[in-house]
Amino acid sequence: MSAVLAAVAHHAAKTPTAPAVQGGGVTLDYATLVQQVETAAAQLRQAGLRVLGLLLDNSPAWAVIDLAAQRAGIVLLPLPSFFSPAQLRHALESSGADAVLCEDVVMGALLPWERKQTLTVAGRVLHLLSRRVAEAPALPVGTAKITYTSGTTGQPKGVCLAQAAMDAVAASLAGVSGARAGDRHLACLPLPTLLENIGGLYAPLLLGACSVLAPLAEVGLSGASGLDPRRLYAALREQRANSAILVPVQLQGLLAVLAAGVPPLTDMRYLAVGGAAVSPRLLQDAASLGLPVYQGYGLSECASVVAVNSAGANRIGAVGKPLPHVQLEFAADGEIRIGGAGFLGYLGGAAAGDGLWDSGDLGHLDADGFLHLTGRKKNMFITAFGRNVAPEWVEAELTRHCAIPQAAVFGEARPWNAAVIASAVSDSEIDAAIAAANAELPDYARVRRWLRAAAPFTPANGQATANGRPRRTAILDAYGARLDALYATTAKEVTA
Question: What's the CATH number for 390-495?
């Protein structure tokens, strides 16, 4: 039995009426949670499933199914609602999922499901769509969950994780955060986001706390990039949240609301921020408003969090001290090598091995043991919503259209992506081409605004390699000020 399931059973015996999960008008205490998990696990076993996809809004039902899959020994495949239909289909097919549990009838059109039944879980009627998979892909031994990041290419990779690795991260977070039984954690990120799944569901359950799993609209989220910071503030206050996890753009919006003079969040003790680069200025602004914000760093391949700041050890500019279970080494070029709760392997790839994993991030530990990040080895950037985007992928979609012969896409730590485009056609033709490209991309990868380049990217001006690939640093040097102005102008429009 996993550590999380064992903890839930322990709390059900010791404090059976304590709330475990809440949301959407439903509250399950620990005793009821155990009962619902056992019932759902029996139904899933009866269906004879191997890999179960789960596409569901944040809710107690999501938590029940997650725990029931553990109890039944079924591999869970959490599906992000911000994935495009093509990405959802890819995730289901590449994982060999023989079923999906959902409320959305659209899922029925993605694959030729053979059977359909309904399950009632935590007050919600869910559709269980299943099929026979003739040649299921081999999974690494011990796989309990397959988590997909938003992807560094058009098709995201599936990361295979053991339950023990996720338990280890959850236990470390429970200790470092200073959380305790009776606390209330409000999930402000989608539960398919591994950070929220482990930090916002498993860690509270280990402690006997309550995880508030409200529908995402109630915390101000829609899609991959829609945000209403006033709703976020209202939810944190109304739920009397003691902890939450935010991505930087949520924190930025929350600070804007607090700066307007609303009552402070007096119940909040630990507000983690991560998923993308965090501006030190943003952290300083949070401190000046009395908000207990702590930056962290993690990767899906490391079962989420690797390092995080805490009340007793907080350093602005660092991503915190490594969690107790983590092992760190640094390659000669500064690349961070991580062990302690590693993944088992990628879907369709070789096993990850038992050694340290090369993260692709560059960094160092300071004299006091705080981890600092200094860059990424490759071009992939992470948006302010924590979505991974490879610019080459988006640029390929843009330059498929003759109106856009050259494009360079940027969006690191930004709420949306912008492009510098070298073209001789009219603005309206470029707009139409971008719209057509965006239609093929999930919303987190789309280009929202663009700038016209003063000249084509060429080896002569240093903005392209000899074979035509854009030199991003040179392009950013040339157009960075205009990009900053573009983001600033749009931010004013949004907040006006």
Answer: 3.30.300.30
